Amino acid sequence: MRRSQRLPLITKTLLDRPGQLISLTELAQCFGAAKSTISEDVAIIRDAFAARKMGRIETVAGAAGGVRYIPGLSDEAIVETVSELCEALSDPQRILPGGFLYMSDLVSSPTLMSRVGELFAGRFYSEGPVDAVVTLETRGIPIALMTARALNAPLAIVRRASRVTEGTVVTMNYVSGSAKRIETMSLSRRALPPGARVLIIDDFMKAGGSARGLVDLMEEFGAKVVGMGVLIATAEPRQKLVKEYVALAVLELVDEERREVVVRPSGWVERLREGGPGP
Amino acid sequence: MRRSQRLPLITKTLLDRPGQLISLTELAQCFGAAKSTISEDVAIIRDAFAARKMGRIETVAGAAGGVRYIPGLSDEAIVETVSELCEALSDPQRILPGGFLYMSDLVSSPTLMSRVGELFAGRFYSEGPVDAVVTLETRGIPIALMTARALNAPLAIVRRASRVTEGTVVTMNYVSGSAKRIETMSLSRRALPPGARVLIIDDFMKAGGSARGLVDLMEEFGAKVVGMGVLIATAEPRQKLVKEYVALAVLELVDEERREVVVRPSGWVERLREGGPGP
Fold first, then answer.
1. Span B235-263, pLDDT tens digits
2. Which chain B residues are closer than 8 Å to A176 by Cβ?
3. Nearest alpha-carbon partner for A278 in A247, A236, A243
4. Are B39 and B150 contained in the same domain?
């Protein structure tokens, strides 16, 4: 097999298994070439990705070493993705009675959510290894799944009611931040290993009641929350029930009467646009 | 930029947007090469993928043409994926009180589900274009999302209760096939375009009550069901409430007392293993 044939195949093997360490031995056997040749191929792929900021290829030296693809968006791609999201959300046809906004199509869009997943993976990669991505059913699942895929971590779905198919569960009551209703969340004992480092991902945050609930639930599991990412946070209330989170977009206003929606990129994304460093 | 640099980048561009037609003009502008050069690059990638049966690269001629990546697993990869699934499910530690089986970790595994999504996409690709992948919350969402991604189709999530954030919904009662309970399912009017061709994807089928409900709900939307894929179907009852579906694995037995689980690849997968054609 020639290099020009191996390059697409090695690229595909790496991209199909984001975050997974693949040994040079496996690649060498799979594509019938010497490890030194594969090593050169990988260097070409690594440099090409680096030049275009299309994620990163990491090589780990030594006997247990190998190569792995770390997804992530460039600053420009982050700004572009969030701008598209804001523009799509600003469509007044999305306004529902009561001043709600229809966004189910966006939060379950495979194309958009795989980009957002890579975005969050890149954003939280520096926080260290993530043992599980945690989300609350239902609408957070697509974003959380794509983030988990990009981080090569399992996904743990917190249910709103306990199910017989979840086995032994930890069930917790919490107060929804805005409506002040008592709600229930429930997670299988088997869903997280002891002492897990978890990343919480959700689609929407208003007062932060369910985010707060998830943080408290993680404490019950002895898990450490290493980060929290939400797609959209509302501007009001300014004081959320959680302190540390990364939002991509801020919902400023839904005016049912004037048929107006105002959504803007979050401060973090704005700073990327201006070329500054993230927080 | 040299060919060896372009090959990984074009491969990545195609894989990041499965099922999407990308024009040669876009690739030429993006990677600073003539369209004829890009066309040669694409032919190299296409042949390499074809030789290893790692999905397909399709080129569409003409002014509105371009190139697209069609995910799909080789027969060997399908057999391997389903065998791994069956082996994982057969672990007696999964047995829950009442003879249920814990499988939440598997149905939400990003690695396994992205392979299953490519598997279903390849399996149903010949049924013609799919306008939406439809699933019932919660556990079917990861498989359905990954299938939708591989088919470049939106995902429509049917809810078990209607939500204010879904706008106008169609709500339907149905009878769960095994427990004979009345259940409710609900889908936003906005979730499907009129006359949509839909693929139904779910994680589990026992008697097929919720599958039947989804088929009936699609009728209310004037949508045409072009296929149905489920990860695991139970061997009993043999007569399901839906006739046409593709299951990957069959759950034969969960014996709580003897701590035994029997799961086998479905007939379709068995025939692939024996080298025969699928149905």
1. 999 999 999 999 999 999 999 999 999 99
2. none
3. A247
4. no
